[in-house]
Each structure stands twice: as C-alpha cells, then as structure tokens.
C-alpha cells in the first residue's frame, strides 16, 4: 500500500458521506417539489445527523448498537473494496455482512415492529442477492476474472453486453435504497404506518450511525451502476446520477407493494432476464475489449 | 510409527466402546474426557507421522482377511435377523441381495495377496475431524444423555456409548483403508451403527426411521459392491487409489471405468443423503442430538463425500463429472429452499447439511483443481460448524424445552454464552471471513464456467443466507421474560466452546491449512495444483482474490469502535415503542384490545410454506434428482 492508496482511502472515507448526504438532501428536495412542497434545505440530512448525535442514547437492549457499528464498518469496507477494484464476488459477500448486521440489529431489539421490518428485509435479500451475484458472473464471463480492475481498465463499456442485467440492477438499487414500491422494511418520510420498520427502536447516536452508513451506502450502490460504464468515468458518473434520479422519480410515482409481489417480480422477471443475459454471454463468448 | 498409529486409530475406539460397556455409568464422564484427549493425541500423531501407504502382507494378512470376512458375514446376518424380527420386508429383501452379492464376491472374485491403508493428506484431515469433533460430541453426550433419558424413561446408555465409539472406529477405518473390500466392510459397519443409533428410542417412529436409514444405505451399499465387483473382475482394480492410477487424467481410460465409478458415486450419494435418498437423514433426527451431530458432521455423511472426492481423478473433466456437478448443485438449491420453509431447528440443520454436501459433490464434479480444493476445505469447515450448531440446538432444547425456531426468541437473555456460540456457528456458515464462505467463494469462482451449476449455486446461496439470517436474528432478539436458566455443565460447555474456538482458529489459519493439507492432496488427485497464490491473509486465484485477513481486522475494528464509543453515549434503557399501548405491569409486549383487556403481541418469521414447503418441493426434488441420476448412468452405460 503506497501513499496514493492511503490518500485515496482517506478521500473516500471523508468524501463519500458528504456526497451521500447531499444526494439524500437532493432526494428530499425533489420529492418535496414533486409533492408541491418547498422542502427542507439541501443539508437537512446533515442537520438531522448532528442533532441525533447530541441526543440521549436511548436503547431497549444494551447491545443493539453493536450491530449498527458492524453495519457501518462493513458498508465502508465494501465501498473501499469497490474503489480499490477488488474481487466483485467478495465485495458482495462483505456487503451481505452489512445487510445482515442491520437486520439482526433490528431483530435484536425484540420490538414487534422492528421484527416485522427485519423479516421483510430478509425477503429483500432473497430478492436481490441472486441478481447481484449474476451481475458478478457477467463480469467474470466478459473479462475472465472477478476482479473489478479488468472492468475499469477495459476500453469498451460493460453496458453494451449487459443491458438486461442493467435493468435488473436498477430494480435492485430500488430495493436496496428502500424506496417505494419496495420500501416496506423501513418506511420513510410521510408514510409511517409501520412506524419505522427495522429501525423503530433506534434513536440518538445509534440512529445517527445508521444514517451515516446510509450515506456511504448511497455512494456504494451508485458505484455499482457506475461500473456499467467505467471505461469512461464521466459517462459512468452520469449513469449513476441518472439511475439515482430515476429511483427518486419511481419512489414518488409508485405505491408500496406487498413483499410477496417483490419476491415474485424478482424470482420471475429479474432472474429470467439476468439469466437470458448470462446465457447470451455464455453462448456468444464475447470478451470485453 | 505410522503403522502403529493406523492400528491404534482403529483399536483404541473399539477398546473405549468395550470400556463403556464394562464400566458403570458414573465413570462415563472420565472415560469421555480420556477418549477426547487420546483422540486428539492420536489424530495429531497421525498428521505428524506424515503420509504413506501401510501394506499388510503375509503372514498377518490372512488373519485380518478372515476377521474381515467374518465381520461381513455377521453384518449381513444382523441385518437379516433384525429386519425379519421387525417384519420389515423391503430391508430384508435388500439384505438378501447384499448377501447374494457377498457370496458372489467370495466365490467369483479372485482373492488378493495383501491389503493396504493409504494415509494421504485428505485421510489426515478426515482423521482429525473424526477423532477431535467426534470425541468432543461424545464428551458433550455425557452431559446431555442423563436428562434426555430421564424425559423418555430409557436406560440404554451402554448401547449408546458402545455404538458411538464403535462408529468412530469404523469411520477411522473407512477413511484410511485403500483396499476396496475392507473399505466396504467399514462402510457397512457405519450403516449398521447409524441404524442402531437412529432407532435408539425404540419407539415406533425411531425404529421406522432406523429401518429407512438402513434400507436406503443398503441400496447405496449394493451400488457400491456392484461397482467394486466390476472393478475387480473387469479391470483388476482392488484399491481406491488404483482407480485414480488407472483412469489418470486420460479420457479413454476414464470412459472405460465410468460405469463402476458412477456406481461407487451413487453409493456415496446415498451415504451423504443426497436427493432422492435425503429422507433417511431427516428421519435420523428422532435420535438424541449427539447422534445427529455425529451423523451430520464428523462421520456417516462425510463418508459419502469422502468417497466421491477420492474418485475425482476418474471423472474430472468428463461428462460424468458434469453430470455429478449438476446433480450436486441441484441438491444444493433444492434443499436450501426446503430449509427455508422449516420451523424445526433440527430440520433446518438437516436440510442445510444435505445442501452443503451437495455443494461439496458439485465442486468435486466440476473437477478443476480449484473446485476440488474447495470441496475438501468445505468438508473440514462444514464438519466443525455443523457439529457446533447441532450440539447448540440440543442444549437449547434442554434449556427452553423446544426446538422450534420461533420459541428461541429472547434466548440471548436466557443463555448468553450458548446463544453467542450458536450465533458464531450460524455466522460461520454464511458470512465472511469464516471458512465455509471462503469455500463457497472458491466453488462459485470455480463453477462459473458451467452456467447451470453456477445459477443453481447462486440461488442456493441466497436461500442459505435467508434461512440462517432469520434464525440468527431470532436467537439474538431480546425479550423481557427470563424464566429459563441454563445449567452450565463443563461436559456440555467445554465441547461447545472448543468447537467455537476451532471455527475461529481454522478460519484464521485457513491458508496454512490449505498449504499443508489441501494443495498436496489436489496434486495427488489431479496431478496439478490449484493456481492459488498469495500468502497468509489472502487467497488469490487466477480469477479473483479473497482478503479474509482484512475482514478479520475490520471485524475486530468494529468491536473496538463499539467498545470505545459505548461510554461516550451512556445508554438509557427504555421499553419498546408500542404506539403508546405498553402495559408495563404485565408484559411490555402487550397491546390493549377493543375490550380493554390486554393481549400479547407476537411476531414470527416468514417461512414461505406455500412456495418452498416440503409438500410443494419434495416430489419435484425426487423426480428431477432421479432423472439426473438416470441420465448420468445412461451417459456412462452407452
């Protein structure tokens, strides 16, 4: 590890939450405008976190904040592994640790609301994880390795050969960002009918940690979209931004569905189009130049 | 001396089984401790002795061969007698077929001049598993069985410990024997021991399930003995390593021995409870928990995958290999889906075992050096994690009186150490940096060249995450009632803690284990080593890298951050948010209903019974797995 790597790591550690915070602020601003409100200031998510950190650490279970720390640390690790172009399959597994930690954290409180939210989030894992790993498989078939460096160093974009997986990944992004129509595990903003799903019993510094981890997660998830056009970083970033804005629009124009519906959608449509894409790559044998 | 260690590994467990019969129950605790210590010492000693072939020639051979023949006759007579006694006609029929095959072998197959034990790195790993995990399970049993028998008014502990110890002897013989005839004897002995142990309760259910195990394993045993007869008469191969030498990596020779090899594999599938043979292992859970732990982790089912992996040189890269890979990965996804729908903790674990063995078989079928390395590593890591999980389930059952996952919520408050160990076992089955996930990563990378296999593995892997995650969340959830008190006996908690520690240690030293045991073994099997480079802390294959050390560091960092910041924000405990409806006098989880009385809120996990339930999937599983086996057999027969 040389100085450049360390600088890059520090840059990611500081820069990612700032970008994530602004992205979250933009989300709230656009959502407000679409609903005919003025909306909060752009930095509202930052003010929220600041206020949460100054609050009392209210818990129902003394160890519940441990899982939140694991969640944060592993989100950061998966983001760093993405930035340093590590093995993609490995990144997905590390990311799973973070997701499971948040779920277990929600269940550990023992509150019925949190447990309902957590069971639904477990079903979300069942919906998106196969698609994520199929995405990794597509990268392997195109480059002969799971290491992301091959994708970034290639001269042609991934998207050309993986359009169907791209569509599936947009839905995965929607599920992972917990946006409508798949926002039943932590309901956001105005729709509070299940209190706040997994995070019901979190408040104060513990909840602030979850919010900060979310900022990192925003960057990580759009980073997965960026990979589709990593050969030209500018187009890649644009692609990430467009995908993110698309998710916000979808969030505002759709209503929440049952989790069963999501599972059916995922295991029928998403899996089938991803597998069709994989089959095409396998049969044609194309390689990313 | 390696010869002495080999002999001791078979004789000492038999000696202990006789001691268990001879000595009174009050001494079992000390016997089990002694057995554990000697088991560890002997197996480590075998590793220190190094690898080699132990030849047994004249004049001893004639004596041993007679003992083997007598034992085989006794096994068959026992099967015939017991199935006639309980009027179990299918088993009796299978027993008669086995007897006929034995008579045919005795008269028509030319006798050998010697026998041999082949100690390679794989045998060493298996010996370590059997004699360390296996004896730890027996030690656990001494703290478990009294309470178990008390509940059921049984007094059969002599039979129990005798059979458990004898099982280890048979298993030791099985993983060391190279001569196929001897291997077959040990194979049938494990079948017999499992029958005795499964029907331990001697009630109707126990006996029925015992006979199911016996019958299905006899089917496997018949396939195995036909395979052995074909090999001996047609190709003059009488040793396990001889198959590899004959087939080599030569496609023509591989095709020639494909039929007997496929039959041996079917024997292995039955032993490893792969679909369509899975029902015997599910039925086996009526037995006491130590039996399930022994069957699922260190003995019995491992024998099947052991044989399949040993046969890798005879099918690597052939169409039979592909068929085996598809078959194994199909079992993996199917049983993972079935596990998702189960509420009974032991059934979840049973399906998880079958699924993981399917993954091992799939890896063996893929047959690349990387995949075979993954298969052997998975056998090791799975054995440790699964033994821990089964023993924890048994102890949980004694603590809270139920094995239903839903009843386990709040366990962390009732038995913190036990819950932590069980959670470690579950985490080690599905998350990095632990060994099982590392091997899953390796097998996925290795399988990525076969589209059907990899898609099955991907789906199965997501299902695995789900069924362990909800169980993990349930046991770690806190609750306000604290009426169960764990009884902390050293005999039960020492093996649990020991296995927990073993998971962590083997995961930290995974690269050393790989270098010392697995790499040379893959070289023996396939003549090439996996292209894995790197040093301690990271696996680097030709297609990816797994930096497990970094994850350990980050995990430690998370614990440190948590401990450091814990006191910065003093926690203030409050009760659940229940929309303002908490009834604090009775239970904090109570809601007021429309009649102004209180009702307890309860939440359960999602089991998707209507999609993944046994009634929906089992028939489909039988049909497809049988079709896959028939296709494999048709492919090699034609």
TrEMBL record, chain A:
**What keywords would UniProt list here?**
Membrane, Transmembrane, Transmembrane helix
Reading the lineage from the top rank, the first entry is Archaea
Keyword Membrane in the entry? The reply is: yes
Report the membrane topology from the UniProt record: Multi-pass membrane protein
Entries under PANTHER family matching the protein: FORMATE HYDROGENLYASE SUBUNIT 4, FORMATE HYDROGENLYASE SUBUNIT 4-RELATED
Cite a GO CC annotation: plasma membrane
Q: Which organism is it from?
A: Methanosarcina barkeri 3
Protein known as? Energy-conserving hydrogenase (Ferredoxin), subunit B
- Parts of the chain that traverse the membrane: 6-26, 65-84, 90-110, 122-142, 154-175, 234-253, 265-283
Q: Where in the cell is it found?
A: Membrane
Q: What is its main location?
A: membrane
From TrEMBL, chain B:
- Looking at the record, the residues that make up the NADH-Ubiquinone oxidoreductase (complex I) chain 5 N-terminal domain are 116-148
Q: Does the keyword Cytoplasm apply?
A: no
- Regions crossing the membrane: 6-23, 30-48, 60-82, 89-106, 126-146, 158-176, 182-202, 214-232, 252-270, 282-308, 320-341, 411-431, 451-472, 493-517, 545-564, 617-636
GO cellular component terms listed in the entry, alphabetical order: membrane
In this entry, which stretches build a coiled coil? none
Protein's cellular compartments = Membrane
Specify the protein's topology with respect to the membrane. Multi-pass membrane protein
Query: Entry's InterPro entries?
Result: CPA3_Na-H_Antiporter_A, ND/Mrp_TM, Proton_antipo_N
A Pfam family cross-referenced in the UniProt record is: Proton_antipo_M
Its predominant location is membrane
**Domain spans labelled NADH:quinone oxidoreductase/Mrp antiporter transmembrane:** 179-463
Keywords (A to Z) from UniProt = Membrane, Transmembrane, Transmembrane helix
Q: Which PANTHER family match?
A: NA(+)/H(+) ANTIPORTER SUBUNIT, NA(+)_H(+) ANTIPORTER SUBUNIT A
* Record protein name field: Energy-conserving hydrogenase (Ferredoxin), subunit A
